[in-house]
Amino acid sequence: MPKPRLQLILCSDDIGPEARRRRSGRSFRPSVINGGKRAIAVPAGDPWQAWLELFDLGVLVSQTNYLAFVAASLATLESQGWAERSETRRHVHRH
């Protein structure tokens, strides 16, 4: 049964050529997978568009939280009977 080989993954282009070369006189020989080149080749999107989408998301979350707070406040006031009293007072003053 063959021995499992260690795989070395290079994720940066900063590694010098002396670190990449293999020593031929030793039994330790990892296979090298170059993983840094592919990540650099990915095209970057428009950074302003990403910031705008992030800002829009923040505004949407804030608005949703505000509306949930208002709905909870109204539900609390109605459960305590405060909303009905204010409507009754309006009808009394109109007559």
Please supply descriptive tags for the structure shown above.
4 helices, 8% strand, two-stranded parallel ribbon, 95 residues, mainly alpha
Describe this protein's structure.
With 95 residues, the chain is mainly alpha-helical. Helices cover 59% and strands 8% of the residues. It has a two-stranded parallel ribbon. The N and C termini lie far apart (100 Å).
Question: What's this model, at a glance?
Answer:
By secondary structure, the protein is mainly alpha-helical. It has four helices and two strands, in the order E-H-E-H-H-H.
Number of domains: 2
Report Rg.
33 Å
What would you call the shape? Answer: elongated
Strand sequence of the main sheet, in spatial order? 1-2
Order of helices and strands: EHEHHH
Instruction: Provide mean pLDDT, rounded.
Output: 73
Q: What's the helical proportion of residues? A: 55-70%
* End-to-end distance: 100 Å
Please describe the biggest sheet, giving its number of strands, its sense, and whether it closes into a barrel: 2 strands, parallel
Number of helices: 4
Percent range for β-strand residues: 5-15%
Q: How many beta-strand runs? A: 2
Identify low-pLDDT runs.
Answer: none
Question: Which structural category fits the helices and strands?
Answer: mainly alpha
In terms of topology, how is this protein built?
Layout: E1 7-10, H1 17-20, E2 31-34, H2 36-40, H3 47-80, H4 82-94
